[in-house]
Write a structure and sequence with these properties.
Distance between the termini: 64 Å
Order of helices and strands: HHHHHHHEEHHHHHHH
Number of helices: 14
Shape: globular
Helix content: over 70%
Strand content: under 5%
Radius of gyration: 27 Å
Length: 358
């Protein structure tokens, strides 16, 4: 009997050569490596676009206003740049105060009137006694009392945060009206305070530098401390945070209190910048602050509210509004821009969050 050897499939029990991995250095292996690198590069590019698209758009819009005939002689001037940086510092600080409760999935609708009440009380205080330290004490008291009241009602009485802070905002509006009678308080603001709001360091507004310092501290606490990680954990999944032993009510309360303190500080900065206060100024802070906070989830850390995304969003809206104003566009267009930005911010935050968690 003769035996024939199967030269097609090789020795019995040996694997099919077609199933073996391509030898190192082969053309097939090289093609696979190139495809993997291409996929990785594409993913990185997409991540970059998601993270910095808002910043790129900000630069593009600024360049457009620099060269547009309607604004080319007014927008790119040094004076306008300084005004732009300084005027938005107040909104920037208030936006950071708005951001903190949002990290725990809470809305503080009283942020505008907290800043407004702080501005009114600070202006009245320094006009009468000239004490800047007394004004700082007022700011701290307003932040702790109002933020603490919001926190207690939400975490202890379990009242919905939107209802709580909307009611608080209405109460604060009544206090402002009672305190001022609808008229601006005396504006005998001491020069030491106004110098801070209008001063420059190496050509950069002091009040803008203050915003950057506050933002840097907030960023460090949220991203490089256990407290910040716990706050983010509560916002990501409160039930899971409870299961691992985090004091969720205490963390939520802390965001309300610190957020209110930042908003009250924004009121003080407003007085230093404007040299006075208006009883209606609080209403002008609310929408831009929320628009910037929500747009932050579409920048730097997509799908997640974050500090530097908030700052970019503040100046994105500021550049857009400033350029349109210099072009002579009707004031109501700015309302369209801010309202549209808020809707876009909420939509982008939702879409990016779902994309990153699925």
């Amino acid at each position: 009997m003769t035996h024939t050897q199967d030269t097609t499939n090789g020795p019995a029990g040996s694997p099919d050569p077609a199933t073996l991995p391509a030898p190192v250095g082969s053309a097939e292996a090289e093609q696979k490596r190139k495809a993997a690198r291409a996929r990785t590069g594409k993913a990185r590019f997409v991540d970059f676009l998601e993270s910095y698209a808002l910043l790129v758009i900000l630069v593009v819009i600024a360049l457009f206003f620099c060269f547009w005939s309607e604004t080319s002689s007014t927008f790119p001037t040094l004076a306008n740049m300084r005004i732009l940086l300084a005027s938005q510092a107040v909104i920037g600080v208030i936006s950071l105060g708005t951001l903190l409760p949002l990290l725990c999935q809470e809305f503080d609708l009283s942020v505008g009137n907290i800043a407004g009440l702080s501005a009114i009380m600070v202006a009245a205080s320094v006009s009468s006694n000239g004490s800047v330290l007394g004004a700082v004490a007022i700011v701290l008291a307003i932040g702790v009392v109002i933020g603490g009241a919001n926190a207690l009602i939400v975490t202890r009485l379990h009242v919905n945060g939107v209802i709580t802070t909307l009611g608080m905002s209405t109460i604060l509006g009544g206090i402002i009206l009672q305190r001022t009678g609808g008229l601006a308080p005396a504006s005998n603001i001491p020069q030491s305070l106004t110098n801070f709001g209008t001063g420059l360091v190496a050509g950069v507004p002091v009040i803008f530098i203050t915003l950057l310092v506050i933002a840097a501290i907030t960023y460090f606490v949220l991203n490089h401390t256990s407290l910040g990680r716990q706050i983010y954990a509560v916002g990501s999944n409160m039930d899971a945070a409870k299961l691992v032993g985090l004091r969720t009510d205490g963390l939520r309360a802390a965001t309300f209190v610190v957020g209110a303190l930042l908003c009250a500080l924004g009121g003080l900065l407003y007085v230093s910048r404007a040299g006075g206060a208006s009883p209606n100024v609080g209403a002008t802070f609310l929408l831009p602050a929320f628009a910037a906070a929500f747009l932050s989830a579409a920048s730097v850390r997509p799908g997640r509210f974050n500090v530097w995304g908030t700052i970019i969003a503040v100046y994105f809206l500021a550049v857009l509004n400033n350029g349109l104003s210099l072009a002579g566009v009707d004031p109501y267009v700015n309302d369209y821009v801010n309202g549209g930005a808020l809707i876009a911010g909420v939509a982008l935050a939702t879409v990016l969050y779902r994309r990153r968690t699925t």
